[in-house]
User: What shape does this take?
Amino acid sequence: MMTTAPTDSATSTGWSNRFLLLAIAGILFLTLYPFVFSLTRHRPGLGSPFLLEGFGKDAGLFDAVLNVLLFMPFGFGLAAKLHERGKSKAAALLPALLCGAFLSYVIEFVQIYIPSRDSGWTDVGTNSTGSFLGALVFLLFGALLLPPLSTVERIFGTWMAGRHGVLICVLYFGLWFAFSASLQKKSRPSNWSPNARLLLGYSAAHRSASGWTGQILRLQLWDHALSDSSALRIGSSPLGNSADPAPLADYNFSGFAPFQDQRHSLPDLSWTSKTPTSNVSDGAIFDGTSWLASAEPISIPIHDDLRMTHQFALRLVCRPASTPPANTPVVLVAPDSAPRGFRPDLLLEAEGPGLIFWFRTPLSMSGSRMSWVIPNVFNVGQLRDILFSYDGSNLSLFIDGQKRRSDYILGPPAALARTIRNVKTEELPGYRFIFYAVIFFPAGSLLGLSWRKTSTHPASRAALVFFGFLLPPLLLELLLVRIAGRALSLENFVLSILFAVAGGLWVNADRAASTSTMPHVRSTS
Assistant: This one.
């Protein structure tokens, strides 16, 4: 008769590599992002970098718990791998602790050279504890957790064969595409106030102790995003004409008030409170007590255009006269009698030499201020040509004819992150990786299961690659482009494909080991 000889290693087979790969990838991303390194980073009071930075990190209990949880999958996967190699479960505890400590130490050492990160022995301790606890979870519950995972894998592997697999993929991508479309709409400039006015150098007492001081030479508004080439060309000639592309509104502050929009789209700007005592012919002078305001609301033409394009560009040519206090508006689109705490439609303000930019969208109104802070812009006495361009998803900044790093990325990644937590402006670029990973890594895993059942004929494999790994990323990118109006992003397309391929490779990472260590079937008479 046929009998099956069970082996204890079967409980750990088929998932150890997958746990380790996923754990290491998650740890490296969450601890080393944004992958910006500075070998000359100053470390005050630190001798050898190998000594890290002591135990002085001001991490609270919540951060410590997160550090423990981060390394638990690593300890679990390492214990599963060691058990698969013939080690007893208890024998995996010490290696898990030591390997977790070593990996954490290497990461903390590298973090010394990442300006936005802090390193220290405290994290090594909490991470090591997490790795040890992960191995302990495998010791206590591994036999209960792994068999159900293998069962789920086997069920999905069966479903992904033939027509059922096609239906599952269509439903999966259809739901994600619909959800992504709704997320993209949250980045549209919308719900702007119907009675908002254009205000320059606004100095209401409840907003700042004194208004902005300096000179504004030009202000231009577009109802669409500008290409990089157009923005660079415009910024290279601060006082020159920029007829290509023509702006929606163009204020040239030569002469005296009222200042007219040369495009005749927006109302005149006049001094409020009083006319400054000093004025020059080539620009409006702001003394901190007076500001310019449009004679009537500007929201009707602005709102109609934004509703169609979901894009805009704004250019300001100015020369600060002094270092302003915090939250000093320079350009403001809002009712001039707005109550305290009211969020304007658009705000460009100074905070010392720094510049802060914000505009109203459903996403930016959802609890996170999401202001973009750019340091060292308003240097006293220096002429600055500042141009912001928003393409429906990404906000780009050009200063004095040079493009600054574009890291104000909205769209579905930020909206998805907002459903979970308050988003942080400095984390916006990282949300894009998470967004495409959440969609295409699981999809790639499903396709990896389907790959097992696909005929080895080249035509069958080619069809799976095209319709599974290539077409969905392209369709998602085209969908988001149509909703936002932005240009096609080859980077997003390639990133989607890479995550899908990674998911396919990951789900098959333990396949050979799983096959070779299945319970042995022997025949006895």
